Amino acid sequence: TLWVFNFGQKPTSNVDENTVWPDTPLSHFCGANPSKCPFGKGTGDAISRDTGYVSDTLDRVTGGGIDPSGNVWLLNNWKKTGPFGPVYNTNPGGNSFVIVPGAAGPVKTPLIGPPQSFDQPGQRRDRRNGHRRDHR
User: Fold this and answer.
1) Are 92 and 78 in contact (CB under 8 A)?
2) Which of 48, 68, 122, 125 is 20 to 30 A (C-alpha) from 23?
3) How far apart, in whole angstroms, are the C-alpha atoms of residue 104 and residue 28?
4) Closest-CA residue to 74 (of 25, 110, 37)
């Protein structure tokens, strides 16, 4: 499946102190493998409702990711309060993130093999200062 983290929407009217700002949604679509989509859905079809998934905790999402357990992590980029109040904030430095537990399926963590030393054969690191010493 495909998750789209939406930055935001324009208000439908002129901005003033009575403006109601549209929600910032999180959208979910069927991916390239239709066998993993809900019944009746195909590649590119929306799984979420037309408006996406919305919450008051989402504020102009700038990015996100899915961890190995299937939790969706979203990064906010807006503060609801600022020098001009909640209607229009000139301080876009977001200070929060949102976790949606188990929303996505678990993903496989890439494995690159066991850790290996960067030392050359016949050399060891001096435990006192980390420099290499020749032990041949």
Assistant:
1) yes
2) 68
3) 9
4) 25
Quick check: helix, strand or coil at residue 44? coil
Cα dist from 40 to 30, 46, 105, 124, whole Å: 11, 11, 19, 61
Mind listing the pLDDT tens digit of every residue in the chain (136 residues)? 788 887 766 666 666 666 666 667 888 999 898 898 899 999 999 999 888 888 878 877 888 888 888 899 998 876 655 555 555 555 566 678 889 998 888 777 666 666 666 665 555 555 555 555 555 5
Q: Count other C-beta atoms under 10 Å from residue 100's C-beta.
A: 19
Cα separation, 12 vs 83, in Å, equals 23
Alpha carbon of 127 to those of 40, 119, 124, 131, 132: distances in Å? 62, 13, 9, 8, 9
Q: Which residues pair with 72 in a beta bridge?
A: 66, 100
Neighbours of 17 (CB within 10 A): 9
